[in-house]
Amino acid sequence: MVEMKEAAWGRLLAMMRDGMVVPVVGGRLLRDAAGQSLQARLAAKLLADYETQLPPEGLTPYRELNEAVSLLKDKADLQDLYGDIHLAMRDLRRQSGFALPQALAQLAQIRDFQLVVTLTPDELLAQALQAEGRGVNEVVHSPKLPTSEGSDLPLDWQDRSGTVQLLYLFGKARPTPLYAIHDEDVLEYAHNVIAGGNHAPKAFLGALQDRNLLLIGCNFPDWLSRFMLRATRKGRLADQKGGREWLVEPLQREDPFIGFLGKYSPQTSVLSCTDPADFVAELHRRWMAEHLPGGAAAAPDPAAAEPATPESAMFFISYSRTTDLAAAVRLHKALCELGVAESEIWFDRQVLEPGDRWRQRILDGIRSCRYFLPVVSGAAVARDEAFVFSEWDEATRRVAQMNRSFLLPLVVDTENRPETYGQPSVQAWVNRDINFGHAPGGVPETSAADKLRRLVREARMRV
User: Fold this and answer.
1) Which of 434, 436, 459 is nearest to 447 (CA)?
2) CA 450, CA 322: separation in Å to the nearest integer?
């Protein structure tokens, strides 16, 4: 078991830039804003629908759905459970205030990944990618799929630079038994891959064998972990040269799988000291630091960290650095494309929360800017505490004194439903009937872009 050192992070990012890393995304990344497993929420609803009590010891974390199905197999028609789970997934996504898991949103912002594998049957990762304006070609592996629905990695996938190739290794949720909901299903899907059976994604697996895997929060049973490593290697584990994997999983030192890897797959780095979601957050932070406009240092000099903007800016972009940095970058770009100069935009690109030395300058900037643009998202409003809420409060106080356009909140989620967000400032804006613009992933839709264009024209006319 190892921890990622600076040199190791550098190697991983370099391989990602070269297109040689494929993330394999597991259930441990599917957590809501409160940190609860979405699988646990699905299992609880399924058991409640069948009037079945949770066992006194509860369900094993991130194995909840498999155990719920096991509890119901004697009192429900197993074939019906696939439809029930599909509907439960749909209902969960439609709940008020539901936001995509932050780890998925962060992975979707890392544009070095053109091949991605998901081990869960939900559409959340695809939605996170689409929210970032990325095309998604879904390759669904299911042995019983109708022949007309079979798919694999297209021959020209490398020429489709704007499209992510997403493999659902254990099927995609739908009302019929065409995806895995318990361990016996998973065993059959694994067997189909090994045997090269119906709809086995041979081209996709071949591409994986030529690359390095980043297995994040997969929560595999021991046997399945070994299968995944072997199925994505061209030869025996012990004979393999050159390739490598990173397994981000909270395993104990005495876990038999650790010993197995040490003997037969020493090129697999087991990162068990970091929570998978925290690993994604750090990977996202480092990748964003390399790809922000002008480049951003991971550890900036506090003396140079203040935004180089005038005391009175045309636009002040206010956003949660932890959750919405990528969206804010795109919004900044959109303003520049509308003819707004860099010097006319207050945009603090630092990923750290502001220190005391420049808090006052930020608040002064809000009091003197022409237009205030809060970047609003479900992930941001779900935070327990953030300086961005102080920025929003200050803008709310100022808007009460205004007799002109000043505040234009922009929702960067896929859906524009600000009334579902419970954050006090957002609710205050809703109650004041302030119009919310829609900018999915930070890219303003036509009506929002037109509104911004009018604001720029108004600002120019007053000069």
Assistant:
1) 436
2) 28
Asked if residue 292 lies in contact with residue 305, where contact means CB atoms within 8 angstroms, the answer is no
> Which residue type, as a one-letter code, is found at position 329?
V
| Total count of residues recorded for the chain | 463
Average pLDDT over residues 277-301: 71
| 24/28 Cα distance (integer angstroms) | 12
Q: Are the beta carbons of 349 and 343 closer than 8 angstroms?
A: no
CATH class of 6-33+99-281: alpha beta
pTM: 0.64
Q: What is the C-alpha separation between 129 and 167, in angstroms, rounded?
A: 13
Copy the structure tokens of residue 200.
Answer: 């086995």
Residue 68 reports pLDDT greater than 70? yes
DSSP 8-class letter at 340: -
Q: What are phi and psi of 429, to 5 degrees?
A: -65, -40
- 40 closest CA partner among 58, 26, 53: 58
Domain spans of the chain?
6-33+99-281, 301-461
| Interval 338-359: pLDDT, tens | 988 888 899 876 544 444 456 7
User: Secondary structure of the chain: what % helix, strand, coil (to 5)?
Assistant: 45, 10, 40
Residue 359 burial by Cβ neighbours in a 10 Å radius (0-12, 13-18, 19+): middle
The DSSP bridge partners found for residue 163 are 135
Tokens 């096991």 sit at which residue? Answer: 70
CATH number for region 301-461: 3.40.50.10140
Collapse the DSSP code of 17 into the 3-class scheme (helix H, G, I; strand E, B; otherwise coil) and give the result. Answer: helix
Helix (H, G, I), strand (E, B) or coil at 175: coil
Q: For 419-450, write each residue's pLDDT tens digit.
A: 999 899 999 999 998 999 999 989 999 999 99
